[in-house]
Write a structure and sequence with these properties.
CATH superfamily of the largest domain: Spore Coat Polysaccharide Biosynthesis Protein SpsA, Chain A
Helix content: 25-40%
CATH architecture of the largest domain: Alpha-Beta Complex
Order of helices and strands: EHEHHEHEEHEHEHEHH
Number of helices: 9
CATH topology of the largest domain: Spore Coat Polysaccharide Biosynthesis Protein SpsA, Chain A
Distance between the termini: 58 Å
Structural class: alpha/beta
Number of strands: 8
CATH class of the largest domain: Alpha Beta
Strand order of the largest sheet: 3-2-1-4-7-6-8-5
Largest sheet: 8 strands, mixed
Strand content: 15-25%
Length: about 260
């Protein structure tokens, strides 16, 4: 085929060490034609300065200044707007690709199926517990309408684990549920294919995360109410009530 097979968007913000690791992991992918787009809404010039010198890694990517609206989701979508390939992957700077054939496997799986997205496994780095995505995803895949569970349980993982067909954008009105709402919306258009034996990495619980300084339960409750109030509702009234009760119960258990 002519042109890139998959577009990888990296929405960068300030953290050069994490960004460089992320970019290198994508540039090192094998046997696939990749388009790498860096959208940078940093306040400083640290990412731009890194991208300016010519090296094998920086030459592989296209850099652009992203919108500085204060809403990082605008920066995510700015990169997706520039993507030209039929398949897209959003890789945050605290994520990285572990398997050098991950993108080749994702493209092949989407090419030969009617799937809306392909999901890789997840390795969470920097936390003393097993990856919850690895534990929950196999169970969720056997449940009826697992897509509907996403606002309560993110059984897919970080966005780097979710390669999807070109078209959809992330909802800038959401923060805590922005990824799971996106996954659920994409999966309304077709099934999910899982990529066996491949993984992406994610840095767990660091200060630069969007949700590091907020109460995730309170925000999730607020955003589920938003999704339930839309026309048509993205979460049914019954599911909203059940999920809210479960989140409140979990929050109460942590406070005890």
């Amino acid at each position: 085929m002519s042109g890139p097979e998959i577009s990888c968007v990296i929405p960068a913000y300030e953290n050069l060490d994490l960004f460089a690791r992320c970019l290198t992991s994508i540039a090192d992918q094998r046997d696939v034609d990749i388009e790498i787009i860096v959208t940078d809404d940093s306040r400083s010039s640290v990412i731009r300065d890194f991208m300016s010198p010519s090296s094998a890694v920086t030459r592989a990517a296209r850099y652009q200044a992203g919108p500085t609206t204060g809403n990082p989701v605008h920066n995510w979508n700015a990169g997706l707007e520039q993507a030209r390939a039929p398949f897209h992957l959003l890789v945050h700077h605290d994520e990285f690709l572990v398997d050098p054939l991950y993108l080749r496997k994702a493209v092949d799986a989407l090419d030969r199926s009617n799937a809306a997205a392909a999901q890789g496994g997840v390795l969470v780095v920097g936390v003393n517990r097993p990856s919850r995505f690895g534990l929950v995803a196999p169970i969720a895949s056997r449940l009826w309408n697992a897509r509907g569970l996403l606002p309560l349980i993110n059984w897919i993982g970080p966005t780097a684990a979710f390669a999807f067909r070109a078209g959809p954008r992330f909802d800038p009105d959401l923060v805590q549920l922005v990824d799971v709402e996106f996954y659920a919306r994409v999966l309304r258009t077709g099934p999910l294919v899982r990529l066996a034996g491949t993984s992406v990495g994610s840095i767990g619980h660091h200060d630069a995360q969007i949700t590091a300084r907020i109460d995730p339960t309170a925000l999730a409750l607020t955003e589920m109410a938003i999704l339930a109030s839309r026309t048509p509702p993205e979460i049914s009234p019954l599911r909203h009530a059940v999920f809210s009760a479960a989140l409140n119960l979990r929050s109460w258990g942590r406070r005890r």
